[in-house]
Amino acid sequence: MNENVIEKKNTAPEVVSKPKKKKRSKSLDIQKSRMGWVFIAPFLIGFLLIYLPMIVESIRFSFSEIDIQPGGGYVLVDKGWENYSYALFEDPSFVTTLMGSLTDLAFNVPAIVIFSLFMAVLLNQKMRGRAIFRAIFFIPVIVSTGIIESIDIQNQLAQNMESTTGAEGTGGLENSGSSGAQIISAMDVRVLFSGMKIGAGLVNYVTELINGVYNIINKSGVQMLIFLAGLQSISPAIYESCYIDGASSWETFWKITFPMISPMILVNAVYTVIDSFTSQSNQIMNYISNIYTGQNGTVLATAMSWMYFLVVVLVLALVAGVLSAYVFYQRKDV
Amino acid sequence: MDTSAMTKKELKEYQKQLKREEAIRKIKSQEKTPFMMRLRYKYLTMYFLKKVAWAIFRFVLLVGISYVILFPYISKIASSFMSRDDFTNVMVKLIAMNPTLDTYEAIITDNRYFEALFNTTLLSVLCAVSQTLICSIVGYGFAKFKFKCKNLLFLCVIFTMIVPHETIQLSMFMKFRYFDIWGIYGGATNFFENIKFMLSEEAGGLANGYKLLEQGFIDAEIDYNFMDVLFSNPQGKIHAISNMLNSYWPFAVLSLTGLAFKNGLFIYIMRQYFNGVPDELEEAAYVDGAGVIKTFVRIIIPMAVPMMVTIFMFSFSWQWSDTFYTGLFFTSTKSAILLPNIVKIPVSLDTNYVAQSTYEAAIRNTCGILILLPLVIIYMFAQRTLIEGVERSGITG
């Protein structure tokens, strides 16, 4: 009856006895994080070996005074808080320059961000010659750097020196304080307005306004690019559905475009603050550079710039903190 | 027509012609809006007029702003072709009456332009290439790997970007003048020199030598212990590994460690970009048996080429027109002259006359033009890739 019973072969699986090797391989995660350290290594080495000692030494310098020895060495004499108190309380114009550059910042940063947003929206539309306009608007980033400005400063200095010997009547006209580039000088505007009997106050105000606009235009290259990148990441399907639903372009801008690039606004605001603080045409940077080359100026300049740095960090934290409360993130996990 | 005298063929053609004329008459008699009315309804509407007004406004605005951006350069270029007499001539505003290339010739021959050009090109290309590579590698490390203190280290990257130049100007100068890692070399040299001194004959024995070294501390009334004495430096001479100034070494060191000008920004950009690259790509490579480095070299880098071109352009142009670092590290122009150093009045031009400051201003502007001209040429070639690269960067998150 049970011929079809399959006979179970009583075969146990053969145990192959190999000499057991203990493998010490770590998990993939740990391996990958080790490789992460390898990739970071150049920056880590530089930071630990070069940058951190520089910062520590710089702080040490700012609390002391340097005597350069004739044999080629130097000796540090500890002076405590004297450098800082000199800069804050006795130096003629450190605090006023600092306040001046802060007010400049307060005016420039919103203006630059708004202007570059507007320009990015304009340049995002399809029109003829769009590529040319984009190229032109990006020129100031590449070209207008320290060299042009230092040449301008030399030219202005030479011109002022000559004019005080009597040739032109520019004596008495201030150069609007900052060393930023100027597109028109008060001289030209005064000549323009001289027939209309407009007072000197208005002339100076208009000149400053125009030069301010010129500064803003020249500083918004990179921000415009970032905004352009952000605008192009918004899918056109949203715009189409808005158009179908009958929204006007003004409403579309405020309800769709503006919230979706608000992360970019944060990035740009932070970048503008950092850029204008460390740019080379800043009033206070110039002031500190002049101090650096003055008498016993090196440590004083270091102390001043540390205070300046604290101010920078405060302003940055303020701006970033306030803005990131208002930023709308599309993804819920951010 | 007399149809009787026609053959069958001619009759058929005649009927066809009649049918054709009938059809044409029918079409012509249909209602069609005349041409002018069509035009009016298409082009005289509010919608079209608004589009046209917006296009004109936009165009005028863009042209105006382009003028504001380009005008200073136009005036500088125009004044660089003017000859000496043109500056005293009141009628000359932008177009020179006697155009000449004298200024260019004088600057090129007197101020060693080609030598400076070669040096600056070499320096900028080396710096830009190494910065691009290092920032990509570090950015990739921050993007795709999880390890301890990653956020803290990234904050350090941002920190290097925020600190203003003047803060570390002095200590950077000192660091590269007496280059030493954590003071180890200096301390060790001091120690061995002191031991040598104590063991030598003029000290008169070990204990006597120690007392001699101690004397300096006692005289100056400073607190000390025996370690201070052993590591002390009686002549105030600083021992360092080398003096790295007046050479390209500071730039090499700074670029190869990702600490040069605005490298923090580059690392941030590359990190954002690599965050946007999907993980599945790498995992596919790992499954196929590639190691981490091979994946990076073969797959990730070719994908990131537009971004790397962008970063290359940025760092190249910033290094080219940089006056801060070159002024800091090159204290004399004997060893190598770089482009920012050629902004001086050439000797062969005589500028001592009435319009001296204007002429000198124009000469300096011409120097500036000569400095920036190669950069603008390269920018013209690369600008398409540059703008597209940032658009694709994933800075948008």
Give the gist of this structure.
The complex is a heterodimer of chains A (334) and B (397). Chain A has 334 residues and is mostly helical.
Task: Describe the 3D structure.
The complex is a heterodimer of chains A (334) and B (397). Chain A is mainly alpha-helical. Chain A contains 13 helices and two strands, in the order αββαααααααααααα. A two-stranded antiparallel ribbon of chain A has the order 1-2. In chain A, helix 3 packs antiparallel against helix 11 and helix 8 packs antiparallel against helix 11. About 5% of the residues of chain A have low confidence. With 397 residues, chain B is an all-alpha fold. Chain B has 17 helices and no strands. In chain B, helix 6 crosses helix 12, helix 8 packs across helix 9 and helix 12 runs antiparallel to helix 15. Chain B is elongated. The N and C termini of chain B lie far apart (84 Å). Chains A and B meet through helix 1, helix 3, helix 4, helix 5 and helix 7 of A and helix 3, helix 5, helix 6, helix 7 and helix 11 of B.
What is this structure's SSE topology?
The complex is a heterodimer of chains A (334) and B (397).
Chain A: H1 28-62, E1 64-68, E2 74-78, H2 82-90, H3 94-124, H4 130-143, H5 146-163, H6 186-193, H7 200-219, H8 221-232, H9 236-244, H10 249-260, H11 262-278, H12 283-292, H13 297-324
Antiparallel strand pairs in A: 1-2
Chain B: H1 8-28, H2 35-43, H3 46-80, H4 102-110, H5 113-144, H6 150-162, H7 165-177, H8 184-199, H9 206-220, H10 226-230, H11 249-256, H12 263-276, H13 279-287, H14 292-303, H15 305-320, H16 324-329, H17 356-391
Helix pairs in contact in B: 3-17, 5-11, 5-12, 5-15, 6-12, 8-9, 12-15, 15-17
